Amino acid sequence: MSLLHAVILGIVQGITEFLPVSSSGHLALFHAAFDYAGDESAAELLFDVVLHMGTLVSVFIVLRKEIWALIRKPFQKTTALLIMATVPIIPAALLFRDNIDALRTNMPFLMVGFVITALLLFYADRVNKTHLTKEIKDVRLTDALVVGIMQAVAICPAISRSGSTTAASLFRKMKREDAAKFVFLLSIPSILGAAVMEGRGVITGAIELSAGDMINMAFGFFAAVLSGYLAVNLVFKLIQQAKLRYFSFYLFALAAFVGVDTFLLNGMFFGR
């Protein structure tokens, strides 16, 4: 892996982890376009973990006040809501991980996933502001469970985790600012879980890192932190301003492009 490749992967991971466009879907397209499937070596898995940690740092920077409040007072309603919303993704990830990994190279599935995300974002924007009455303190456990189920669905590549959970939060009548905070707080256990799942091979595998590998990881990490920080702040503003539909237009166009490439151009861009 070159330094440029590491930086690009860090930027893609940081931006798409939080922008409601699906990081897994975009990384799958990136790997297909550059004919890079990665490998299962401990070093490669460690690089994936490092990128996830970079995106996690960006969340901690942006939501430092809310996170510090949870640390100071862990036994509160918000903690219970986050736990409830996290529960559905655990069995989904454990039971279907192998199936999900296989879908990353299935271009028709990725196309459908992008369309689903686009539809969720489009209709989330259309929720009338007068219907959004719940602050986080008013959210019920059933509301959190619905958001959690949508997060579990989003383990499928091309279905955005942040997009689906934001849409679910708005459909459950959470105020836009509170929905944004809840979604990004919920990303913390999700990102940690992804890092653990991807890093299982790190523990058992022999890691031999050269100086170049460590430099690549460092640059990839900081690229993920910076791009993730910018993405979180941007999405916060767009959720509050009801402008998620712009992402839906992009995803409709991307899905169309993948479809044309798959069915008309025989994989000219994303063929493996």
Radius of gyration: 18 Å
- Report the uncertain regions: none
Quantity of strands, as a count: 0
Query: How much β-strand is present in the residues?
Result: under 5%
Could you give the order of the helices and strands? HHHHHHHHHHHH
* Structural class by secondary-structure content: mainly alpha
The main β sheet shows up as:
none
Number of helices, counting only DSSP H or I runs of 4 residues or more: 12
Q: What is the end-to-end distance?
A: 19 Å
Q: Residue-averaged pLDDT, rounded?
A: 88
Descriptive overview:
This protein is an all-alpha fold. The chain has helices at 3-18, 23-33, 42-62, 64-72, 77-86, 89-103, 107-125, 141-153, 161-171, 176-204, 211-240, 245-263. The radius of gyration is 18 Å and the shape is globular.
What is this structure's SSE topology?
Blueprint: H1 3-18, H2 23-33, H3 42-62, H4 64-72, H5 77-86, H6 89-103, H7 107-125, H8 141-153, H9 161-171, H10 176-204, H11 211-240, H12 245-263
Task: Give keywords.
single chain; 272 residues; mainly alpha; globular
Summarize the structure.
The protein is mainly α and 272 residues long. The protein is built from twelve helices and no strands.
